[in-house]
Every structure is written in structure tokens, then in C-alpha cells.
Amino acid sequence: MADSPRILSIEDESDIRKFLRTTLGANGMMVLEAETGKAGLQKVVSQIPDVILLDLGLPDMDGMEIIRQIREWGRTPIIVLSARGQEADKVEALELGADDYLTKPFSAAELIARIKVALRKRNQPQGDAPFVYDHDNLRIDTAARRIQLDGEDVHLTPIEYKLLAVLARNSGKVLTHGALLNEVWGKHSTDNQTYLRIHTQHLREKLKDDALNPRFIVTEPGIGYRLKP
Amino acid sequence: MKPDNRRPAGRPDPDKLLKLVENETSGSPRGHLKVFFGSSAGVGKTYAMLGEARRRQAEGRDVLVGVVEHHGRTETAALVEGLPVLPLLEIEHRGVIVREFDLDGALARKPSLILMDEFAHSNAPGSRHPKRWQDVEELLDNGIDVYATLNVQHLESVNDQVARLTGVWVKETVPDTIFEAADEIALVDIPSDDLLKRLAEGKVYVAEGANKRAAENFFKKSNLLALREMALRRTAERVDAQSDELNAAMGQNEAQLGQKIMLLIGPDPLSTRLIRHAKRMSVRGRAPWFAVYLQSDRHEQLDEKDRTRVEQYLRLAESLGAQIVRLSGARPAQDILAYAQQNGFTRIVVGYRRPPLWLKPFRATFAQALIEQSDGIEITVVHGATGQTREPVTAAAVIRPYLARPLDYLLATAMVALCTAIGFVFRDHTPSNNLAMIYLTGVVIVAARLGLGPSVLASILSVPAFNFFFTDPYYTFNFYDTYYYVTFAFMLVTSLVVGSLTARLSRHARLVSNRERETQILYGLTRSLSAERSVDMICEVATRHISEPFSLDVTLFVKTPEGLKAYPEGVTTPDMRETGAINWVVANGQMAGRDTDTMPSANGLYLPLLAEKETLGVLGLTARDNGHPFTGAEILQFEAFASLIAGALQRARRSDEAAESKVESENEKLRNVLLSSLSHDLRTPLTVMNGSVSTLLRMRKELPRKAMDELTSLWGQLTRLQKFVGNLLDMAAITSGHMKLNFQPYMIQEIIGAALGRVEATKGGRTLRTQISGNLPMVMIDGGLIEQVFINLIENAFQHTDDDGEVVIYVEKDADRLRVRISDNGTGLKDGDEARIFEQFQKGQELRSDRSGGTGLGLAICRGIVQAHGGMIYAKNNRMLASSDGMRSGTGASFIFTLPIATSFLTSQEI
């Protein structure tokens, strides 16, 4: 199974590890396991997994600290497993560099879908390199700075374009409000979320998207936005 | 006292500016005082005040006439017409009905602005405060604005000048501090000639009867001119002071040249003149001033009357804006100068009385000593010339030390007799000169025990007794030896001197021991209180320590959430007057009752127990022998007790609070640990089960059909269990009051969109649509929680509708709120269920039997979340609502909640 993706689950509950093992194994993935944060960090270095599933409530280490240490040297996608109602933790984890989160309890289908997005992201261009996003008749070509919806050109303001490009580069991944403000407006505007709402609203109108029934831009209440992959 | 730290020039002091602004803004709870200030009666102050009050009333303010004396003048009376007038209170005083301002009536009526004529008026005995200006203070403290009128002669600091000028001694005065603290001064001024003309026309009220002549004498042109100048000057000085205040705040304090004045106060009545002198000096020089009393050993020699007078003078100085300092030291001049140097005083004001001529060569006066040693400090000496208002030295004052009980004189005589008896025993064995020593010993004993008077008597009696019994020839007043003249003379002088010295020493020793006793009491109280942490014990210790040594009945009233609690328990309830005084003390944080300025007619003296500006209770003291008044020194000591008790009460309260908050934080910690471990322990198996079942469900091709059916049913139960656990944990967070809201701006459509995605799985065959009226502004909400409200309400609607039912979400803007209605066409609510269903663990009775869904928590959670957002939530059957929304009226129920829209989003253009 040389080609099968390697998933590292850092989780102290053996039952959950067992469930992950069965489910992921059944979907052709290879599961590496670590019971503690320390063991997890060692395995990240020695085994070089493709995706990391990280439980935030580990007994030996703060989950945030683990994300921070992994991000010091690597970009391996991290999916955080957390409980409902802990929006603040999710936002913090995402802003520290986690790629996605799953709220316990989650279904096998959800888990597989998120891992697949993370695996795909891994192969996508990083930084400012040009890329093409194509989903449900929306085509974004950053090299040409061209947006086409149902075959027609869409004209965006520079801010709207920047916003869409950031979302598209990270499509499938939740971007927190803070991260979006930082990417689009720069460091010092991270607390004016009203701007973000207004421009997102405008962007949705131009993309003929509906917040009530999103075709492209999905709202994650309390956390941020996600562009459908 | 700290040396004042001046800021470097040119830098605005933000604190001072802020204070100025605070003084100016009407936002401060204290009322605004405007004084209509004039040089004398008849200038038209009342008229001016009424005119302005009418304008304020026309602007819509609630103006009330507290007191206005129009003295029958028609112009003034006409202006009162149409203004609401507070009825005067009738007070009976010795059979005479006196009409006074009704302070309680005014406080109860609480107008926005009240008019108080004759600011300096003295209230009738039995009123709450002796002076009207104190009534005004209380009105201001209660946030009521006051207009008042005042003549310059009623200002404390010019009181003596006016008296010398006009020969009329005005008793009704207003402390300068009150005048200076007024927010606004309006000078009402007319030229003196016009005033005289008005007087001639009878337009000025002049008292009738005996006072008439005095009043006419008062209204002389020279007097009026001088008074007018005084009024103008005081107003100008006030304006200067204000601009100084502003300049100082702006950093331009050239005006303050670092002047600082010290006034030395003693028991001499000259002090009152000195105080006013120093006050005027400080106003003119715009310098702070301090009244200093040096407690040297001479203080011990002062009698009660002198000490009381010193306290009076210090209080007078304080009312004129001085800071009070008490120093103690053995070398007056050096100690004063050292203190002045250390604290940056530039000038010392001291009184001077010419000592008696015969003493002059022997004793330098205090003023001389100061002048000789002063180094760079200006000394201003005010001469207490003859002819000044000096308290005459009465015969009583001279002979006071000699006054003693007649019994003491009898005892002194008996002592001489005893000495004679002892002398008889030794008469034949010793030279007669030695026998004189026996008498001397007797005089010393008398002086030490009985005081000066009896010792003088004993001295005088000793000489003839010695002569009669012990000089040859015995039993006659003759003597052979001429040298006995010398013996008698020495005997008399020695016994008088030794006697008076002994008397003085023993008096001093008594004073010292009194003082030591006071210190002992204070120390004992401090020590006992410091050990106590419970209010009951503190009160018990305090009453025990104070009541015995002073023969006082001590009652403590401690503020509790249920009202004042009296200690010792079971103490007889004080009568109305006492209760009034106690409540006043609690409300105002100042002392009241006997021998104070407020309600002096009360039996007891009531002191506030103040800690950090908060009144924790009242210390009530009633003398057991009712005749004896409390002296200033005693009251000072009681204040020390009160502050000790207050400190102890504060500590007790602190330790209670600390214990409570410790328990509270322990509880919270425990709750959080419990919640998160519960959450973890419940979710882990759920996650595993969820994962396993969902994996199995994906293998539907490999499993037998029967197994699939079981799995599907298991999946349904699992989903319910998950929802229940989630709700339970949410509810725990809400009811514990520890739900933290993360407010962010949202378009409500975004939240609805997210919620719709989450309920998709449970929707089945139902139609779910959203209808939004008009453009909606953004709302500040916790997105995650409001999403939960939508999910709960939508799922609740699903549970109460058939599988082909319809659920519609209506959203509209209603003034300053967003209104969301989630309406279904199901069975509707049973009557009376509308409110009940939002309680925990309540469910609508008519649940569809095939979907035993709800946990009874979902709606309670919604209510908790919506209320935390400042919104409302309620339910109604659709038939109770207007059927304009296109829903079939008569079926189903609507759940409605509102969310407030922030003003900034209300005014901004919708997107």
C-alpha cells in the first residue's frame, strides 16, 4: 500500500482510535496512531504522515501547542477534532494553522470527505503561485485574473477579487474571519468584521449566490467562511 | 500632608481638566447651585432669581418655589404667580407656630430646580438643620438644582468687617466654602443712589420695631458704597479663582506663585479675627491656607472651655476653606517653623497680645520668638489691640481654680488641726522650727489631694496655728522672739509656693492620666476589634469598650441587606426623632444629633461608620446623665472610635466576601471540570457508536436487509441521543449563567443558510422555505448560538407537522429589532402551552406519536440564548395571528423571536 495516504491520529481514547482505524482502513487509508501529544509530535517527524487528525483534549499537552510546534517546520494538513460549542477553540486552532475541524460526534462520511479535501489541498500550489479553481460552473483563473460564471465574465472590485482568490486558494477549508481580514485588508484590520460581511455579501450577489442556500460561499457561524471545493 | 507636586509649566493636567469638565457637565449626580449675590437688601436679587426661574420654566424645566420672601412687594409677588410653590412646614416651637422650608417635602417632590431665598437664614429649632444653607447642601446632594439669594454681609469671611463698618453684627452667615463651591454666581448690582431712592420709595423691606432704627442706620450711603465694593470684589475674586483653576489645569499656573499660608490658632478669642484675616489673605493671594493648632504641654493646662473654643475656631477655619493641622511639640516656635519649612509655607499669621507690663522684661511673646527664628518665612503679626472684641476676664474665671467643694476646705482645716495634734507630740522634744515642717507637709498633702484653693487655706491657717500652739508663750498670738517674723514669712511663702506647685503638678498628672486612659481605651478597642471577624462580636466588643469609661449608652446600627440592624439586640426602639437622625446619618454619611449641626434636638449623638466613603452603619451614643454636653474633644474621640469600628466592620465584610468569592470560584471550577468531563465522557462513546454505525450503513450491499433495518433504527436513536446530550450540555451552560457570547456582525440570512444545511437530514418530505421582507440590516449576534436557535425551532416545527407539512421562516425588520417567525401548519399548541413550553423539560402535549423527538430542552435553550441577546421569544397559534402572511390561518403554531439591532446598523444604509 505504498500509495495509500498515511493518516496520523493523535487521540487518547482507544475506542475512537479503533473506529478511525476501521473506517479509514476501509477507505484505503493507512492509519498511524499516537496516544499522547508527545508521541504524536515524534511520529509527525519520523513517519511524515499526509494528514494529521488531532484531538484537542489530550491529557499530556495542550492541543494548540501541538499545532504550533507542527507548524514551526511543516505544512502537513491538520484536522482538529473538537466538541460542539467550542467555537473559540476552533477559531484559535484554525488561526494557529490547523486546516479544518470536525465536531464530535461526526459520521464516517463527514470524516472521509474532510480528509479527502485535506489530501487534495496538499497537492495544491502554495503561496502566491497562480492556480485555477473550477467548481459548479465557476471558474477562477488567477494567472489571467479572470472570473467566469456560467461561461460569462464576472467583474469584481479589487477587494472582492482578493477575497474570492483567498477563499479559492483554500477552497474546502474554513477561513476564520480574522484570517480573511488579515489576508485581504492587512494586519491591522482584523477587528472590523462589518467590512468582511459587506464585501462577502456583494461578492455573493455578483456570483448569483444566496446566503440562504449557498452555491459557493458557505457560512460557518462563529468561525468564518468556506468556499465549496 | 504632602508637599504639593506641581506639574511642569505648560503641560495640561488631564485629571484637572477632567475634573473641571465633570464639574461642568450636568451628568454628575450633584445638583447645580446658582447664587444671586448682592451687596444688600433691596438690590433685586429675589426679583432676578424669579425672572430667571420663569425662563427656565418656559424652557420646560420642573421649577419649584422652595422659599421666597416677597415681603409684600407686589412686583416680586407677581413673579411668583404661576410658579408651583412648596407649602411651608409649620413647626411649633414653645407654643409659637413657625413656618419653615419643608426639606422632606422638597426631596419627596424632587423638582429639577428649586428656589431658595435668603441663603443665610437660620432655621427654627427642631428643624433638621440649623441653617438653610445646609438644607441647600442636602438638596444639591440629591441632584436637585438650586437657585439661592445671598447678601455679601452674610458671608462668613467678611462678617467682622461688616460688623465694624455698620455696627450691626450679623449672626446668619454662610461659610465661604459653600459660596465658593457654587457653580455660578450672578451679581445683582444697582448703584447705591438708586438703592437709596428705592428705599425712600418704600420698595425695600425694612424690619419693623426695635430693629428698625438699626436697619436705618445700616442703609447709610457710606455703608452701601462699602458693601457694594465688597460684593463686587468677592465676585471678581471668584472669577479670578475660576480662571486660575482653568489656567492651572491648562498648565499656565503663573497665577499661583507658590504662596502657602499658615495660621496659628490658640484659645484666645483673637483667633476668630485671625481666621477671617487669613482667609481674606488667601483669597487675595489665591493661596492655599492651613489652620494649625500646636498641642504643647500648655494644652494640658487649658480648661474645658478653652479646649472647646479651640475646636470651634478650627471648625470655623475649616468652614472657610482651611485645611486643619494639629501638631504636637514641646518647643512651639521651633516646631512650627520646622513644620513650615518642610511643607513649603511662605507665610505664617500669628496673633499678638501685649503681655502685662511687669512681665515684659522676663518673657518673650510667642510672636517675638517666631520672628527671631524665622528664616525666609514671612511672619504676619495681627495685634490684638485693646478695645477689640476680647472676651472679658470675669471674676469667675479668676477664682475658678479656687473653687472647690466646701467639704474640701473643711478637710483642709482638719488637716491643719491634725498637724497641730502631731506637733503636740513633738513639742517638748524638738525646736519649734521643725514643727513648721509638719504644717508644710500638711499643705503639700492638701494641695496634692484637694487642689489649689484648699492648699491656700491650709497655708494661711498654718501660720496662726503655729503661732498659737508652738511659739512661746503658748496659746497666745504673741511671741517673744522677733525672728519669728522671718519664720512666719518664710512659712507662708514656702507653703503657698509649694502648695500651688503641687496642686498644678497633680492637676497635670491627672490630665496626663486622663489622656492615657483615653489612649488606653482606644488601644484596647483597636486590639480587641482586630481579633474579631464577625459583625456581632465587633458590635459587642465596641459597645463594651466605649460605654463603661464614658458612662454612655452605646447602640450600633449596622447596615444589612434587610435594613438597619441594632446592637445590642433587643435595645428599645428609638423614637421618631432619633430614628430620623439615624436615617439621616446613614443617607448623608455625616454626624447628626446632639451637639452637632444637624438635628441638635435629638437625645443621642449619631456618628456614621464610614469606610471608603461608604456608610456601613451608625454609632449611637446617649449620655446616661443627660445634662452633660459633648465637647468638641470628646466628639473627636468618638469619631476615632467610629472609624475604628467602621474599619473592623469593613474587614469583616471583606473576609465574608473573600470567603464567598472563594466558594464561588471553587464552585465554578468544579462546574467547569464537571461539564467538560461529562461532555468528554458522553461524547467519546457517542463518537465511536456514530462512527461504527455510519460505517456499517455504508456497507448496505453486504448486510442482510433485516440487519439494515435494525441499523437504521439504531442510527435514529443515536441521533436523538446525540441531540439530547448536546442540549443538556448547552442548557447547563445557560442555566449556570456562564454562557459567553461572542458577538459578531452577521447578515441573518447567513445564519439561516447554515442552519438550513444542518436540518436537511431531518427534513423528510416537508417543505421548508424562507421569506424575507425588505432589506435587513446586520445584527450583532453570537452566530453559533443563533444558528442553534434556528435549528432547534425548525426541528421543533418538523416534530409537530406531518411529513408533507410546510415550515416557513419569516424575517422582517420591526423598528429597532429583527423579528423572526418560524411557522408550521401542524397541530398547533394547546391553550395555555404558549408560555409553558419554554420551561425546561416541558413538551407540547400533542406530539406526533410516530416521532417521539423532543427532549424538552430545545425551547428552553432557545429562550436562554435569545434572552442573552436582549431579545424576546414567544409562541402563538397561527389562528391567533393575523393571516396576512399567506399561511392558512387556523392551523399550526408560530414561534417568534426578536433580536435587537445595534444603532450603528440601524442608521447605516442597508447593503
UniProtKB/TrEMBL annotation, chain A:
GO terms for biological process, alphabetical: positive regulation of DNA-templated transcription
DNA-binding region: 130-229
UniProt modified residues of type 4-aspartylphosphate: 55
Protein name per its UniProtKB record: Two-component system, OmpR family, KDP operon response regulator KdpE
Domain of life of the source: Bacteria
Gene Ontology molecular functions: cis-regulatory region sequence-specific DNA binding; identical protein binding; phosphorelay response regulator activity
Entry keywords, A to Z: Cytoplasm, DNA-binding, Phosphoprotein, Transcription, Transcription regulation, Two-component regulatory system
A Pfam family matched in the record: Trans_reg_C
Subcellular location: Cytoplasm
Organism of origin: Asticcacaulis taihuensis
Ranges where the Response regulatory domain occurs: 6-119
Signal sequence, renumbered to the chain: none
GO cellular component: cytosol; protein-DNA complex
Predominant subcellular localization, coarse grouping: cytoplasm
PANTHER family documented for this protein: KDP OPERON TRANSCRIPTIONAL REGULATORY PROTEIN KDPE (PTHR48111:SF50), REGULATOR OF RPOS (PTHR48111)
Every OmpR/PhoB-type domain range: 130-229
TrEMBL record, chain B:
Record's bilayer topology term: Multi-pass membrane protein
One Pfam family, short name: DUF4118
Keywords, sorted A to Z: ATP-binding, Kinase, Membrane, Nucleotide-binding, Phosphoprotein, Transferase, Transmembrane, Transmembrane helix, Two-component regulatory system
InterPro entries: GAF-like_dom_sf, HATPase_C_sf, HATPase_dom, His_kinase_dom, HisK_dim/P_dom, HisK_dim/P_sf, Histidine_kinase_KdpD, KdpD_sf
Transmembrane segments: 409-426, 438-463, 483-505
GO function terms (MF aspect): ATP binding; phosphorelay sensor kinase activity
Gene3D superfamilies: 1.10.287.130, 3.30.450.40, Backbone structure of the membrane domain of e. Coli histidine kinase receptor kdpd (1.20.120.620), Histidine kinase-like ATPase, C-terminal domain (3.30.565.10), P-loop containing nucleotide triphosphate hydrolases (3.40.50.300)
Subcellular location field: Membrane
Entry-linked SUPFAM superfamilies: Adenine nucleotide alpha hydrolases-like, ATPase domain of HSP90 chaperone/DNA topoisomerase II/histidine kinase, GAF domain-like, Homodimeric domain of signal transducing histidine kinase
Domain Histidine kinase: 677-903
Swiss-Prot/TrEMBL catalytic activity: ATP + protein L-histidine = ADP + protein N-phospho-L-histidine
GO cellular component: cytoplasm; plasma membrane
Cited PANTHER family: SENSOR PROTEIN KDPD
Protein name, UniProt field: histidine kinase
